[in-house]
Amino acid sequence: MRWQQTSLAVALAAAAQAGVAAERATVLEEVVVTAQLREESAQETPISLVTMNAEQLEKQRITSITNLNGLVPNLNIDAFPANNQTLRLFIRGVGLSDTQITQDSAVGVYLNGAYMARSAGLAFDVADLERIEVLRGPQGTLYGRNTTGGAIRLITKKPDLEQLLFDQTLSTGNQDLFSSKSSVNIPFGDRYAAKLAYFYQDVDGFVDNKGPGGGFGDRESKGFRFDFRADLHEDVNLDYGFDHSDIQYYNLPAQGVIPRDPAGGSLLSVIGNIAQNYIQYDNNRINTMATTVPLLPTDTTIDGHTLNVDWRASDTTTVRSITAWRELSDKSYLDFASGSTEGFRIDFNEAVLAAQSDDPVVLGVGRPHLTQEQFSQEFQLLGNLSESVDYLAGLYYFYEKGDEDAEPTRHIFSAFPFAGGTIYNLGAEHNRIDNEAVAFFTQVTWTPDLLDRRLHLTAGWRHSEDTRKADREVNDSVVIDQGTHIQPLVPPEVFSASPDNNYDDDSFTFIGEFDVRENLNTYAKYAEAYKSGGYNIRDPEEEAFGEGFKEEKLVSYEVGFKGEMLQRMVRFNSAVFYQEFDDFQYNFQIPGTIAGTRVFNIDNGEMSGVELEVMAMPTAGLFLQASYAYLHSELDDVINPFSGVLEEADFPNSPENTYSLMADYTFSPLEFGVVSVNASYNFVDDRQKNSDTIYRDDYDLINARLSLTEVRGLGGEWTVALWGKNLQDSDYEAFTLDNLPQADRAVIWGEGRTYGLDVTYHYQ
Does the pTM of the predicted model rise above 0.85? Predict the structure, then answer.
């Protein structure tokens, strides 16, 4: 995969206005991409991908990865229930079910070419986005790390060397939305330019908290980005970027739907039986809930540096360097007892322990604090040996260290009467990682001098070596306080372990492309990718934690067609794929626990599917797009290692059908501006439908935007836009849980109807 600046811009021929009598385009623009590190037509690139350019990002109000959920077929995104700023990403059903400091995502996320290792904090807004690219399927031979599912690339706007630019957008809407985005670009001479972008957003959640503390879903996000571009020489250019984000977010509640079965006999069942007297259960979304103690925010801070240098060493050779350093701090907080009446709590929050003392001991709030630092360096050498042979070679290095401190408390079942006393779960956890990765990759494309040079053959290879080290210290105990003494209810968990391991892999890619005719191309691809082994910090047993799990390997077979017809008024892209796992990393829930899991490698996962995309411009100003994905995923029944029982297993986020319909129409220019309307319909099928507790029903979303652009005033141009999302106010399940003490089924709902107004001023 020739990868660096992938940009399949789903570009419509703009309704350009050159004076009053401007003639609008009636054909689709050709899109030039560098998905394989060389400029080429997107229609000739053997990749199944979707890209949203700056115009589309604005119309869909996309500022982060989170906003893509439901918009791109075969891409599904979950906010982790314990921390909504942490994302679970799935492409073609491949992703990471759990998110923790010791496990990597199967979907690689890149900001301006730099890999971001942790799922925590991925919901951050990116200032001044130019485009977002979603690459579907394994990208194992050229991407930096662990991309068995695919890759998401975030690309920001680079400084302009030629002109002074200024942009300001102010937004307001329901849920007390207020946001501001500012950007200024200043050139210095002919070779240097700097750009500063700042954003701020404050919005309330859609579930009111009638108890103390913040509101469920309330979010305040702010940050800035500084970019500097230098043409040091006619053959050398440099791009430096620094980004900073601060996010304060109050997690959405897990609403109880089905009470816990009290017949289970476990401690959780006993607690659940008592909880039914206090918890409000409902199968529909409840817009008002309550906490007993103050609801605290999840605080996330992110800093990142990226330095990209390109040197054109000769007419046929380019050397590229990508250097990055990133830091993450994430302190999470969750309220599992939402909806309870006053005086009852079951969650990770503050409690009072009345021990053998007249004065109660106030325990600190259980807010796991994750800190992580990472450094990566990549060198690329690309060129051609002749008109028939293009090559690429690269060297990649990655290092990270991180620490997750869950002290002083973890699970606290706060004060409620039980057997003449009060149950508490006290304890502390410390988890640390020290990881290193080195990879070498190369790819060669040969166009033989036959069949009118319409045949292109590509071979790629990547060698990866990973060193993983994890330290885990646990000191947990569940006790009952009966006033005069405290006694344990279950044996305490106390251990300290520091396992480490090395993993290596060789992945290969083979691609055959054929230009059927000028505007019709087809390709067949064989691709491999791997995800490193590691350790599971949810495992409560020292031996199982130390043993860890093996690496995961994915093999994919894909055939694609890309073409244009009717004199470039219609464009279509399609892909048919089959992929299978070797040593798939599967999480089993440990019975009787809330968060305990154990990862086993199983060898029976496979997916197959179809991805289709059609774009058309039937008349001037009208753009239509339809995207569809079918996904069949299958995991054979597996023997649960804890119960010994054969049980059904499936991929947790693999809806069978997803599709999106979009229409965009730009009316004929008026004297005072240009009116455009954009509307989209997005559908996501049901998931885990064989389960009685964690299934998710299908849902659809309707979004729309009406804008007035190119309004002259104050020396620049103005845009005013009315927008709405989930206009039908659908109740849909963003996530479901079956392991809470008070509920056999709980739901975190997706966001309801939102609407607002954007006003933008642009000066150049």
Answer: yes
